[in-house]
Amino acid sequence: MPLILDGSRSPSPSAIKTTPTTLRRQQHHESDVVVVGAGILGTSLAITFARQGRSVILLEKSLKEPDRIVGELLQPGGVQALEKLGLRDCLEGIDAIRVKGYEVIYYGTGVEIPYPANAGGDEHQGSRGGGAVDDEKVNPRDPAATSRPEGRSFHHGRFIRQLRSAAMREENISLIEATVSDTIRNGWTGQVLGVEAEYPKTGTKDVFFGQLTVLADGYASRFRKEFITHAPVSKSKFYGLELIDTDLPRSMHGHVVLGEGAPVLLYQIGTHETRALIDVPEGTPTASHANGGVKEHLRSIVLPSLPKCVQSSFEKALDDGKLRSMPNSWLPPSTQQVPGMVLLGDAMNMRHPLTGGGMTVAFNDVLMLRDLLSPANVPDIGDTQRVRKQMRNFHWRRKNLTSVINILAQALYSLFAANDPHLRALQLGCFRYFQRGGSCVDGPVGLLAGIIRQPFVLFYHFFAVALLAMWLMVQKSPLWRLPWTVLETLGVFWKACVVIFPFIFSELRT
After folding, report:
1. Were 65 and a residue from 148, 157, 162, 407 both cysteine, which residue would form a disulfide, CB within 3.0 to 4.6 Å?
2. Helix %, strand %, coil % for the chain, to 5?
């Protein structure tokens, strides 16, 4: 028998609501919407549709609590979207940690870049500082409670468990454990009518029909090649360790460590646990098999560059051998024109996880779709022409936020993983820019947090960094070498253009 977790079920027989739509989902596997993938976007979108009165079948290949090394930091813009979706309570009871901003450590020197005060008004604010967030009430009259927005960091699996529990409480959702293998199409029109899936415990196949099929099966999507023309590009991997009872240089902050190699991220995900993510680009000589592999690279190259307070716990985690990896992928967004189907989430759009923007993008996408595909705007979710029109609007309306997060993630990674003199000059310029404080911090971190949603602000700060990098080169140049230095600064400016403009152009295409 398939595992079907239905929101209409309850331990008390008298409380069970057997509605016609429930019976249609359970007995005939028919619904208004079929959602493939009960991850961040799929689950929250299923809940959103259900609360609008749509009947939803939510399919997930495994309902075990996932164990991943990314998707663990939710920026303030994501916390805000989660609250607007009525899912803020999913952050409770999972030992989530408040995040107040970042500490960037450049060759041993640190600078704090806190989330900006009153960025975007009260609607963008998180809750106030402290430790774990469970069950604490925030007094809205307390100025400290709304002075700065905050993010949250946590174990990814625990958060997913909370979202799925919220889905199971919705009477319009049937959550089914099944591996989707193919879409079902109308042979004449090409319209997607539903999906074919297999129950993992029995190996038997079944079909599920919906007026709209949402494919949100994540970064390793099996459907991406079928519906979009370009593939993800991955040039590095994150290797993850879980550090126990480590002391970070600045509590309740994410840490970015910059040195000779690619960047290292450190952030707390529980009262006792801290995540370390080490970026290892393809072809790194010190991580080659001949030189001892990735573990030897982490031990000999990365470990000495870390803050002293982290090194012992990092080495212990490395000795324990629990090292996992995940590709860092870039996939620009695209529209789809297949009737009856939309591809969303990481299946459709990815960026380097350096800036932790993936979940913020996902929840804000759901928030936008809640309006665009609402019964008021699309009374019949099976009206493929109207759905496709609204999805085209979605593609462009999401740009104010997602283009900022996508471009920022890729451009910042290029600087932080600097592998040539021009990029290293830009990296230094970026750090010195942060050291100036004020708007030089508030602007960039507001963009990163998902609370400043103006692409021009990103463009302004990126080239301000480039100009500062050029000025720093001129300042330290001997007078006799000044003409050559000026020529070198033009190379730095050209490198800045080469870094950012391809990502800008990728956001402009359909």
Report:
1. 157
2. 45, 20, 35
User: Checking DSSP bridges between strand 205-215 and strand 341-343, what pairing results, if any?
Assistant: parallel
Mind giving me the DSSP string for 115-177?
PPTTTTSGGG-----SSB-TT----TT-HHHHSS--EEE--HHHHHHHHHHHHHT-TTEEEEE
Residue spans of alpha helices (H) in 223-288: 224-227
Structural tokens at position 498: 């080469």
- The SS3 of residue 36 is strand
Residue reference for tokens 């016609």? 20
List all residues 6 or more positions away from 125 whose beta carbon is below 8 Å from its beta carbon. 76, 80, 118, 146, 148, 149
pTM of the full predicted structure? 0.90
CB hemisphere CA count around 305 (13 angstroms): 21
Beta-bridged to residue 101, according to DSSP, are: 114
Structure tokens at 131: 């430790």
pLDDT in tens, 366-423: 999 999 999 999 999 999 999 999 999 999 999 999 999 999 999 999 999 998 999 9
Q: Looking at residue 263, what is its pLDDT? A: 96
Q: Provide the β-strand partners of residue 303.
A: none
Q: Where does residue 508 rank: exposed (0-12), middle (13-18), buried (19+ CB within 10 A)?
A: exposed
Q: For residue 2, what are the CA distances in angstroms to 12, 62, 201?
A: 22, 12, 8
End-to-end CA gap in the chain: 43
Judged against a pLDDT cut of 70, whether residue 365 lies above it is answered with yes
- Residue 18 and residue 218: Cα distance in Å, rounded? 32
Give the Cα separation of 35 and 420 in Å (integer): 44
Amino acid at 454: Q
Q: In what order do the strands lie in the sheet with 97-99?
A: 73-74, 151-153, 97-99
User: What tens digit of pLDDT does each residue of 104-160 get?
Assistant: 999 999 999 999 986 544 443 333 333 444 433 444 444 444 578 999 999 999 999
For residues 264 and 141, the answer to whether their CB atoms sit within 8 Å is no
